[in-house]
Write a structure and sequence with these properties.
By secondary structure, the protein is α+β, with helices and mostly antiparallel strands. The chain is built from 19 helices and 22 strands.
Length: 606
């Protein structure tokens, strides 16, 4: 009995000591929110005040000091997130996670983001404020690396800390750009469906945009293996350390429609939940500059922000900036591929991926005039049917650093528009409103055209040259609306109106949110902050009740059971709301799910 008591006493004592040690270690790792820290390269004393939400408010005598402080506190709060983010694009996750991350690394290393970053950095103006302030931000991160506490993840995984560089910033922006794109997840699947069942089968998918009757108004001054691509890329992005951007809403209301006569700005990015969150909020105040912004980990300038002069935000444009091309090998030499001018040699881009506790993996990426061959980057694809990826981000000059700097440091609407025009990819709806009463929306992205009849929703013919890009468009042809007569701008990831008779191809979301936004904004001219706040949480669909009517009209009501008739009665009185106690949405969504399942599963599979 005494032995049992001693054993129990030992176990309890051990658990108590372990608990105390873990608590003490946790307190040791806790970010520093008070006291003084001596940072190098800061000219004058800088104050960082953390509010009740942990948001840093940085008060500095100049912008460089503020950026050093921002880099330091950002690293203090999000260093592990930064570490993961900078490793994705160059294919460096296997260094810390081993073979489990190898597929991810092979894919992203092959895309060419890192090479595009090198090229962009080589062309940077090292004297520009965007570069100088970025280097100050990186200085702050690296001072924390040297002097701050190391997050427990580094020790658990066994990661050696490395200095952050401007290349890391570009790689993070490059990964963000790719994660916004849709073609690589959609085109192979649609191609396989078309090849199996023909174009008539795809009419119900709304590829011609016939389902989207509500379009954003412009205001201008004048085979089976393909499925493997879709599944593989979707799976890789699902494993990302940041959650996907899954569509967003935004609207900016002009003074003629508000109670105060001032602009009201609303922006709601829909991002999957994560811990830590995608955004890092920070407020910077200097004698010549102020901004409250939302930053991605490891980036010096915010993608969403506001100050006393203007506010800006974004949603996904959903334009098509990736094309997939079916290439054709030379039947006598697999090192050559067919073009309209004859056969060309594949160029080889060599990449070495370091793998934890294993040998290095050498990746030889075949490159065509369109881009990298995806078959070499994704398992399970037939190498005799090479598919190349053409992506605007790696093909056009990258000015993303100057662009996001200008968005956050604009002195006027025209300054801001110049920043927007510099973004070749990703495609974004950039929303703007200022204290002078201006409202605006611009779609970013280097837009382009193909020959008439080329449908970029499918894998294109790479050999003939007939499906190649024929024209890159000037930014003046991008969809936009600046101070329109209807006195508001909005975006819900839906299709913009045609420009010069041309609808830009893309992967636009259905019209339900767009229709509801315009339904609420059009009739009302006395908007205030409270009304807009209520609108942000509006959960009513103006489309769903119409769908219900069509579904019910096809029922034989006499054949229904009592429970089924009760369900129909509930749906008939439904106004499209999705409140907590509403029964109709449950019935509606289950009905839609089963309708689609029973319609398509017999051909497409589970």
């Amino acid at each position: 009995m005494k032995i049992v008591k001693k054993v129990l006493l030992f176990i309890v004592s051990f658990l108590v000591i372990l608990s105390i040690a873990l608590i003490a270690y946790g307190l040791y790792l806790k970010p520093k929110y008070d006291g003084k820290i001596d940072l190098k390269n800061i000219q004058k004393e800088t104050t960082v005040y953390f509010d009740d939400f942990g948001v840093p408010h940085i008060y500095a005598s100049n912008s460089k000091d503020a950026m050093v402080a921002l880099g330091y506190v950002h690293a203090q709060d999000r260093l592990w997130q930064m570490e993961l983010m900078r490793r994705i694009a160059p294919g460096r996750l296997s260094e810390i996670f081993g073979k489990v991350a190898l597929k991810n690394d092979k894919f992203f290393a092959g895309l060419g983001i890192e090479e595009a970053s090198d090229k962009a950095i080589a062309n940077l103006d090292k004297n520009s404020p965007s570069y100088q302030l970025t280097m100050a931000y990186l200085d702050g991160i690296n001072q924390y690396l040297d002097e701050g506490k190391t997050p427990i993840e580094f020790q658990l995984v066994g990661v050696k800390k490395e200095k952050f560089t401007i290349k890391d910033v570009y790689n993070i922006f490059g990964y963000m750009s790719f994660s916004f794109a849709m073609a690589q997840k959609t085109d192979p699947l649609l191609t396989d469906i078309r090849n199996k069942y023909g174009m008539d089968y795809l009419k119900d998918f709304g590829l011609d945009d016939s389902f989207n009757t509500v379009k954003i108004k412009n205001a201008k001054e004048n085979p089976e293996e393909y499925v493997a691509i879709s599944k593989s890329i979707t799976a890789l992005l699902d494993q990302s350390p940041i959650p996907p951007f899954i569509g967003s809403n935004s609207w900016v209301i002009g003074g003629k429609k508000t109670k105060s006569g001032k602009v009201i700005f609303a922006n709601d990015p829909h991002i999957g939940f994560s811990q830590p969150g995608t955004w890092y909020e920070a407020h910077i105040v200097t004698p010549e500059f102020e901004l409250y912004g939302c930053y991605l980990a490891g980036t010096p300038y915010p993608l969403l922000g506001h100050n006393r002069d203007y506010a800006y935000g974004l949603t996904m444009f959903e334009n098509d900036d990736i094309d997939l091309y079916q290439e054709e090998n030379n039947p006598n030499d697999s090192n050559k591929y067919k073009t309209s001018d004859g056969f060309l040699d594949y160029k080889i881009r060599k990449k070495t991926i370091k793998v934890k506790d294993s040998v290095d993996v050498v990746l030889n990426v075949k490159m065509t005039r369109h881009g990298p061959i995806m078959n070499d980057l994704i398992d399970g694809l037939d190498t005799k049917k090479p598919v190349a990826m053409s992506w605007i981000y790696t093909q056009q000059p990258i000015h993303i650093l100057d662009a996001v700097y200008m968005l956050s440091h604009a002195k006027s609407k025209n300054d801001f528009q110049k920043g927007v025009s510099l973004i070749a990819a990703p495609g974004l709806n950039v929303m703007y409103g200022d204290a002078k009463g201006n409202i605006a929306w611009w779609a970013t992205g280097k837009l382009y055209k193909h020959n008439q009849g080329v449908d970029t929703h499918f894998i294109l013919d790479g050999a003939s040259g007939k499906d190649d890009i024929t024209e890159y468009l000037d930014f003046s042809k991008n969809p936009s609306a600046v101070n329109p007569d209807w006195n508001y701008v909005y975006s819900a990831n839906n299709q913009p109106e045609a420009i010069d008779g041309f609808l830009y191809p893309g992967y636009y979301l259905p019209e339900d949110r767009a229709k509801r936004i315009t339904q609420l904004l059009d009739p009302k001219s006395n908007w205030d902050k409270q009304a807009v706040s209520k609108m942000i949480t509006d959960n009513t669909s103006s489309v769903a009740p119409e769908v219900v009517k069509n579904l019910i009209s096809n029922l034989d009501l006499k054949s229904l059971s009592n429970k089924e008739q009760a369900a129909v009665t509930v749906l008939k009185t439904w106004k499209g709301t999705n409140n907590l106690d509403d029964v109709a949405p449950t019935i509606f969504n289950k009905w839609i799910y089963l309708y689609l399942k029973n319609t398509f599963e017999d051909e497409l599979g589970a």
